[in-house]
Amino acid sequence: MIREKFFGNWGYAATRQFDVSGTNGAVELTKRRPTFSLTKQGAITGNLRVNLSWRMRTSDFDDRRPTLASSLRNPLRKFTPEVVQAQGQAMVNVDLDLACMYELQDGSKGVVQPLGNILGSINAPPYIQLSGDDRFGSGSGETIYINMDHRDQFKRLLVFVYIYDGTPAFDRTHAMVTLYPGNGPRLEVSLHERAPEARSCAVVLIENVKGEILVRREMKYVYGFQSELDRLYGWGLQWGRGYKSKV
User: Fold this and answer.
1) Residue 198, in any domain of the structure
2) InterPro entries given for it (predicted)?
3) Are the C-beta atoms of residues 50 and 179 closer than 8 Å to each other?
4) Of 72-81, 159-168, 196-205, where does mean pLDDT reach its minimum?
5) Confidence of residue 72 (pLDDT cuts 50, 70, 90)
6) CA geometry: angle at 191 spanning 210 and 217, to 5°?
7) Is residue 63 included in any domain, yes or no?
8) What is the mean pLDDT of residues 88-114?
9) Is residue 217 within 8 Å of residue 204, measured between CB atoms?
10) Residue 76: inside a domain
């Protein structure tokens, strides 16, 4: 019932795109290797799945785990019990959201995001759809589906993550953005860089460059929200303050 409600009349072949992840390992997009051609990989049909997974962690305990070097210097340390603070201020309380600003070849622009329940559409413009809002860092996270059968209508897509509420601490959320093309390896980008007080991060830019679909790692942190990312990339949208309903 859930599959039929969400995917409608896409058919069995279309829904399989979302269930099958890359089987050839993963390609990590890094500073030294920031770009990947979906066109050259033959991954320009079906549905591109973009997933944000994250979980909260304590601010102190993980950082205190002994490294190999420290264990060699202090061999008895592993027998000394750790002093773990009670959950409270030591816990990172954060709500990460996955979103996508889009610009189509006809000049239309917009955003797909949990805030405002702007979930998009997979079978009609912008051919981008968000699965929903994960507020607690569940295993499945949040997912954006991009209909690559309409790739010729895309000009550029900016996948970004922002901290809607809670502590601005990207480096303490174990966040990962993973792209699952319809063919070939999955692409991974870790949001582990230290950017104190940053509340938004441009993760990857998907561009149609003379018919070739390129994915480029961005990893640009800003201290504001969507409007600041908009100014950084010159999108030109109008933004207003929004809120989520209480859970």
Assistant:
1) yes
2) TerD
3) yes
4) 72-81
5) low
6) 15
7) no
8) 83
9) yes
10) no
Instruction: Using alpha carbons, select from 123, 130, 73 the residue that is nearest to residue 98.
Output: 130
At 140 the three-state DSSP class reads coil
CA dihedral 204, 193, 177, 160 (to 10 degrees): -50
- How far apart are the two ends of the chain, measured CA to CA in Å? 25
Residue 100 maps to a domain: yes
**CATH code, domain carrying 101:** 2.60.60.30
Say how many CA atoms lie within 13 Å of 143 toward its Cβ. Answer: 17
Alpha-carbon separation of residue 89 from 57, 58, 166, 197, 241 (angstroms): 12, 9, 11, 16, 27
In this prediction, residues 162-187 reach a mean pLDDT of 82
pLDDT by residue (tens digit) across 182-199?
Answer: 988 999 999 877 777 888
Q: What angle (nearest 5°) sits at the alpha carbon of residue 165, between those of residues 162 and 170? A: 50
Using the 8-state DSSP alphabet, how is residue 49 labeled? E
Between 120 and 240, the more confident residue is: 120
Q: Report residue 117's pLDDT band, with 50, 70 and 90 as the boundaries.
A: confident
Number of domains comprising the chain:
1
Give the pLDDT band of residue 1 (cuts 50, 70, 90): very low
Residue 24, Cβ neighbours under 10 Å: how many? Answer: 10
One-letter amino acid of 71: S
Q: What residue numbers bound the domain in which 12 lies?
A: 2-57+90-233
pTM: 0.74
